[in-house]
## 1
Amino acid sequence: MAYQAEISRKNPGCFLFLVDQSESMEDPFAGGDAGKKKAEELATILNKLLHNLCIRCAKSDSIYDYFHVGVLGYSDESCKPALGGELSGRSLVPISELASKPLRIEERTKQSDDGAGGVMDQTVKFPVWFDPYWKGGTPMCAALKDATKLVETWCQEHPNGFPPIVINLTDGEATDGDLVAEARKLTAVSGEDGSVLLFNIHLSSTAGPSIELPGTASKLPDQHAKALFEASSTLTPFMVARATELGLPAGENSRGFIFNAQPLHVIHFLDIGTRPANVRLR
Amino acid sequence: MNHATAATAANECDIKVFCCPKSGNSVEEYEDAWAHRPTRTPTGLRVAVADGATESSFAKLWAMLLAESYVRSDVAGEEFFARLQPARRLWRRRLAGRPLPWFASEKAGQGAFAALLGLQIDAHANRWTALAVGDCCLLQVDDVGKGMRVLTAFPLQESSQFTMSPYLIGSRSDGEPLHERIHISKGSLRDGDMLLLATDAVAAWLLKQHEDGRPLWKWLYRKLRTPESFAAMVAYGRTHGLRNDDCTLVRVIHHDAPVAAKER
């Protein structure tokens, strides 16, 4: 049966993020605060996803390399590794290296429970790996092609591992070809434990209710959303069960597609051991 | 770590503890805990197993504190959980002032989480009381050597009830109240009854073997004696459906106290 491989430090999982940095990402994001650009929302989401992945793998005073993580940015007719600073030019890095090498660590204030029924201001570290950027066209097909090469290599090097998960964050307007056809080539790459999974996070300028993990395209608002839905993989049974536990409306036909919503639960779709149900996602 | 400890508490129970870490992990990374202690009032024994959650930090320390707190406590009901402040304080103190990188500090701030199963045996009254939060399980097997009936599976009864996201006990007290997650059960004991306290992976697998008509009760009663035999069982299990996780099994065999002892 596919998608059963245990994820461990010896047999790590792989998350590859594809991020749209095209000019259209400068437009306003319809799913959040007024005046926020899609590129800003994307940077917020990606930093939160990377942050949460690091926290998930943190173990006492160290961090376990349960995952390797990569970020490819696509804009201006090209696709290239998008992590900066000391990770510049790297396609995939172990999570421990990602955690220790953000671009910068900001300090932010958040309100938290004071343990006596009230709230208090608490200063928290907020690592930033990725800043908003936009320029030129949307070579999404080129990004999917590059991702295909990367995951092919990963699967050759980890033939018994859990298949890589590719997460594409975009406003959906590819300018260099048929994204569904390229997505099919990507998800045809496979190892012993199954095929590569592609999830799409659609940050749209089209107003409308958030849609998470739909089973059909019938309620999606435009052809870009429908194409991205078409390109998205069906969730595995474990993912459906985990999504349900997290309070999401997932069913057996659910696809890894999210429209104008926070996708933080996606990184919990892979099992690395007992997860306390009483820990809330941030 | 593949080891067993043996003890006879209050002359009425034989106890043996077996444990081993998740395959691929070192002994230091084993995050289950266990403890047992004879009691005077009532004359008998308190036993606990705890299972620190993989996806939480400093969970081994928290599991040890929970197991020790239970066996040193004198309450067997829900009120036990209202007395966890010293254990929580100790957990915080052990971490205080420790220089941690940002991710470790944030994870520690969420607290550690663990499942706990506590068992109090009143040897003279031949009664037991069990307390559980999470998915560590108590299995009571009767008629050992004959019909081998499973009298109790607590708090989970079937292998299909185990999940990867149980509600657990947090080392911080500001989380969701445990109230609705506490399970309590009571039962009686007969001479020769076997009580097994197991962390989730072992418990789920033993129940599955039982459901599939391949129960291991007889083997556990008669043949399980050494760390090596437990390691061999776990190794076999891991190729036959036992989830790769830390494994802990405490076996208690109850012997009805002699009349003279009861009168003392």
## 2
Amino acid sequence: MLCVPLGTAQADSPGSNNDGQAASGVQPPRLLQQIELDYPEAALSTREHGDVSVLVDVDAAGQVTGVRFESGAEVFREVSLEAASRLVFSPATTGDTPVAATTRVLFHFAPPETPAAKPVAEMVVHSSDPDREDTRARTTLDEADLERSTGEGLAETIAQVPGVRMAQGNADAAKPIIRGQRERRLLVLYDGVRHESQKWGPDHATEIDPFSAGSISVIRGAAGARYGPDAIGGVILVEPPPMRTDPGIIGKLLTSYSTNGQRPYGALRLDGANEGGLSARVEGNAAIGSSLLAPDYILGNTGTRVWNLGGAAAYRWNTGSIRLSWHHHDFNAGVFYGVNNSTPSDFEAQLEAERPITADLWSVSYEIDRPYQAVTHDVGLLNADIFGEWGSLEATYAFQINLRREFEQVRDSITGPQFDFTLRTHSLDVLYQPPTFSPAIGDLTGGVGLQGSFQENVYRGLSLITNYRAFSGGLFAYERLSMNRVDVEVGARTDALSRTAYLRERDYEAHVRRETLNEEGCEERETTFRCPAAYTASSFSLGTLVHVIPERLDLKLDLSTASRFPNVDELYIFGSSPSFPVYAIGYPELGVETVWGSSLTAGLRSLWVEAEASVYGQLVDDYIYFSPELNADGAPRYEVTIRGTWPSWVFQPIDAVFTGVDGSVTLAPQAPIGLDVRGGIVRAENRSSGDQLIGTPPDRLKIALIGRPPKLGPVRDLTLSPNVELVASQSRVDPDDDFVPPPPGYALLGLDLGMEIGTRRVFRAGLEARNLTNTAYREYTSLLRYYADHPGRDIRVRLGTDF
Amino acid sequence: MKSITLTAPLLLLLAACADVEGDDHDHDHHDHEHEVMTTISLTFTSQTDGSAFEAVWADPENDGSPVVDDIFLLDGDAYDVSMGILNELEDPAEDVTPEITDESEEHQFFFTGSAVEGPATGANDAAVVAHAYADLDENGLPIGLSNTFTTLAIGAGELTVTLRHMPPESDQAVKVEGLAETVAEGGFGAIGGANDIEVTFNLEVE
């Protein structure tokens, strides 16, 4: 016999969100403890199957205060109500405040498998927590988590997830790293749309505004079968908060100020809805920052100006909804004066210097001088969703324009940008999900979808990235069987890309001279050479989730493949890189990069311990690796240019293996004093040489002591958390493979403080202090480490409220 | 790899595609936005007889395949050496030298290598030629667009010419006094700015 309550979340409109999330600002009650439940004897004679829905009122202490039968066969009414009244929850929360809420519990009844069996069985509870249900290691940051990072960029915001690191570009532009894989091998989905930008640049920050998110989920590991190419290292799912459904207007206001960079930030969101099913949203935020401070000097010209503006309108009816939204991101940032594009010998000399040569000249200023970057990203989308007894169908069309302009230090007579990129992407995503099918063994859910996109890149400037036009398409299906204690999910996907690159004569001839480009494959035009290429890839996944001890201990095993098509820069780049002293050379014959990944994740939840740990291994075939080019005798090759002699670095396929462990342990999550430990270890090797790959993040551990003092007058939910972050030196990488040996390990002290104030209007306030001792250190994964110390002590205060 | 041709009809639906193909956009204008230098010439004028010749380092396609002249000087002579810089990607070639002159307080040439002894090298017993600056910017600092080379001995070696661009940082001058001497002591890593040019010639005194 099976009696399976499915889903404790207040049911949103079915199918409106594939990944599941809480209603705006409120985290639903969470089921803490399982109970036993009998299959009613009265139903034995007919061996009836049935679904029952019960509404359960849960107070702010987590106690069930009321149960109401909503739907289902009458024969199951009594046993369902009785069972529901015995359920134990942790209360719903708004921010960190427990609140009373009503939640819907679904029971599925199935008769005992043999008539002779005792008509009693344990009851198994499936939570609707998407992190727990995903067969991959997945962590969702909800609105409260996101609010703790008020004013920060996407990479900083998600770096709190174990196994996620960030790569700082020049100073205030950071990119995420998941399990040692950087942005090329990560997929960012914004509101279900693949974020398309110039991902290749080490100092190109991800153009996503975290404030526009209601939740951000990070999937660690390959997820290509579900999400498509590029999802080799992981997926970052940025989901906006659900549109408002109740009539009226609500708002959210957040402010913060960072001492390092003297950076004020303000954000406002307004959500409104009427009784006719119409809803609308406007939101925006802005920040201005001055030059950042390293412990011993100013990081000259690292000021930033960032603003975002967005809006959405939706109409909802009984069987569907339609939504139109648009977001604009605008980012201007100085490029640190110390990042000079000079010769390798200069570069090495500066590495030996303790401080940048001209550091004494730099002053703190909000002014942005050359060199700087100016980036805008616009995304507009139209989403339609209909559902009925036949299932649900969702379609999203999106248009994105990514404009990137980089201004170098040049002679006064030159006023324009030196690098100017325009990337336009149209995409269409369609997903059909049939209704849940419930044969005797369990529940079957799934979906089929297709995805298509058209993209064009226009680059103006000296030869660097070629122009191109690309069409891509993907077709996928997944199916999940949820049984008593075991869920099994399979997925398959096939993708194709057709891309035509338009090479300038100089680049074309340079590649032909190197004998890496097949002349037959290109067609000469007036000023360019048209070189088409097509790629296909298939991905599969098999995931298993075992509730070893229901609601206490889960095990997840995921076996996945994923692929990535080579980017145009990897194929055709030919020139000195703007911020790294190498002469970069693409390899036009590169093929598809394929990963074979496995990941085993254990999740433990009890009153005193919450833990998640994951071990993983990934074999990457034809991993496109950027490294020094060697002559036949093993000596490095150089390119002679008028600006000096540069080592030539090429993109070449190698076979790589990534292995690692990441996770977190929280002790006493509810007690006055608790402890949180999280960290990650990654090993990335060249399978043929055994060498560790350059850029592999060093081992890392963060330990936080969490104090939760009792309520103090109007101050509630006070948390005080001193913490220490320990980072080892990356000692496994051969120091001769890089321009400079990896920097030493470091320990940083921090302090986090959070609270809620007020009774009628609740204000949420917090303080995050980082690098309290103002320790000078360099972060191995950051480009900045070649040039200067990391920014030093920063104290950020924040205040937020809903109205 | 095979091209997929079914995309053609879709193209008709999409506007603003043409500039991708690069055939019809004004890329000359945008190249001009770069500080492109492809060619540097050193004009040697003998102080003895006024005869002149030019030694050129040229990568006119800017693709890393330079053509480099060797320099031959006569022992016991001194030469006025003037620098010329071109962007040969433009047609006709753009003379960049006047812009360097206009911004001389941000630019300086340095002369180093086994063949040279001068402010940027310190003592060099193997030198076959001595370098001295023969011009000053508005702040009284050397530029190196005009120089004097005096031969020291018969022999051969390398001459490296470096043009350093040093725009102000935080409105403070990066080009300051004594840079050549700083280079002599600590190499180019010891001064600010970045290279616009760093080329090497073979130089022989006969």
